[in-house]
Structures are given as structure tokens and as C-alpha cells.
Protein: GNAT family N-acetyltransferase
Organism: Actinomadura napierensis
Amino acid sequence: MYGPIAETIRTQRLVLEPLAVHHADEMAPVLDDPRLHTYIGGEPLTLDELRARYEHLVAGPAPFHQEYWLNWIVRRVRDRQAVGYVQATVTPAAGGPQASVAWVIGMPYQGFGFATEAARALAGWLTGHGITAITAAIHPDNRASAAVASRLGLRPTGETADGETIWRPPGAEPAP
Ligand SMILES: CC(C)(COP(=O)(O)OP(=O)(O)OC[C@H]1O[C@@H](n2cnc3c(N)ncnc32)[C@H](O)[C@@H]1OP(=O)(O)O)[C@@H](O)C(=O)NCCC(=O)NCCS
């Protein structure tokens, strides 16, 4: 295993907590809406399925995958309400580790800038831990996610993966 261990990250309105299995209890209702899956595929998980998924995520990938998973739930400070999650998949690259990032905010909590605030904090934390090559894979019709990526300074490239557009910092070359 290589790479940083997820730490608590604080922003003005949010706290990003490293994912733990017990988060499934409060995240299941936040994520229980098929509209969240319009552009990312899949469907809402039951509580038991989400718990199993979190167990898997917390355990991390098998070493041969050459990947490192960092996951946080996003909590609103004002009332401690869990509102979504962010994640980074770290992989080795020639110039140092790179991270593919993603964000999900529950339907009732969208439109308040939470994804942007959480994603900025995530990107800052990654940069502070030596991971400067940040990418995102975004469905071409997912305008809200594109807006978040733009605010991180990412730009859409001509590359695609599984029908999603790869976003990178301007001028960044694809990883070898
Ligand atoms: C993408 C997502 C995380 C954005 O969450 P959010 O907290 O509402 O995002 P923010 O409030 O930080 O900002 C999103 C921006 O996109 C804009 N936006 C939101 N919905 C939009 C839509 N349907 N079409 C165009 N722009 C939209 C917002 O207006 C905002 O821009 P503005 O501040 O200039 O108005 C959320 O929509 C989501 O969870 N979607 C489902 C999961 C998903 O697709 N995740 C992305 C995986 S790459």
C-alpha cells in the first residue's frame, strides 16, 4: 500500500470525514434516490449493500491493483447532516501519484455549492499530499459535475473512458 491516509478535512460549511463502515446508516437515506445515478450508472443500494460496499472500500483494493482508495463522507457543519461523499482513486504515474476524483451530493442538498466546496477542499488536500495530477471522468451530459470540475481548474480533454470524458488540468499530458 502507498499514498496518504485520509484525514478529516474542514471547510467553512462542511467537514469531510474519512469513510467508516458505520457511515452507511446515515448515508443510505441520503443516497436513496435513482436520480443520483442518471449519469453515473447503477442504482441506490440497500442499507446492507451499502454497508458491504463501505466494508470493501475501507479495506481498500488488493495490492496487485496498484490503486489506493480515499473516501470521505461530506457533512454539513451547521446541523451535522451528512449530505454526500467525495472520493479519490490514487494510482502511480511517471511524474508521481495521480488521483481520479468524484463527488456525489444528495438531492435535497444540491444547488448550494457543497460539491464545489468539498471538491476544492479535496483537491487542496491531495495537492498538499503530493498528488498534483488530478483528473475526473464525467458523463458528457452531466453539466452540474462539469461545473464542479471547471471550478477545480480542470478542462475536458478528447479522452474518454466508458463513455465519460476525462477532465484534466490544462496542458496536463495523459498519464503513460
Ligand atoms: C454533480 C453534483 C455532485 C453537484 O452537486 P452540487 O452540490 O449541487 O454542486 P454545486 O452546488 O457545488 O455546483 C454545481 C454547479 O452546477 C450547476 N448545476 C446544477 N445542476 C445543474 C444542471 N442540471 N445543469 C446545469 N448546471 C447545473 C449549479 O448551478 C452550480 O453552478 P452555479 O453555482 O454557477 O449555479 C450533484 O449534482 C450530484 O451528486 N449528482 C449526481 C451524482 C453525480 O453525477 N456525480 C458526479 C460524478 S463525476
Remarks:
- Helices lie at 23-30, 47-59, 114-128, 143-151.
- The first strand starts at residue 9 and ends at 10.
- The chain has a mean pLDDT of 94.
